[in-house]
Amino acid sequence: MNKHCCQEMEKSVTLDCDQHPDIYSCPDVLVRYIPKFDEYGIIIHDGGSAASEIKFCPWCGNTLPESKRDAWFDALEELGFDDPSEQNIPAEFNSDAWHRNT
Description:
The chain is an alpha+beta fold. It is 21% helix and 12% strand. The protein has a three-stranded antiparallel beta sheet. The radius of gyration is 15 Å and the shape is globular.
């Protein structure tokens, strides 16, 4: 069973390129998925790591899950973390475990 909405999306977000060090430098990778935010985006290949969030699958047209980015920050704030990038946050917040277990 695919984790993502369709086989094409599954292939797209799991592409492993042996010629480029990361997905943002590989011209063949068009979509990025951030599990901890359950968030999809079209990569903007401008030399950085920017992406534009998408709400629908470009291949099958299915509605993608709403980003959990704001909920991630809210949940950490409730636990007393006001700067997650500088603090040692609970391990489950580094993956999708924090929202999969709710």
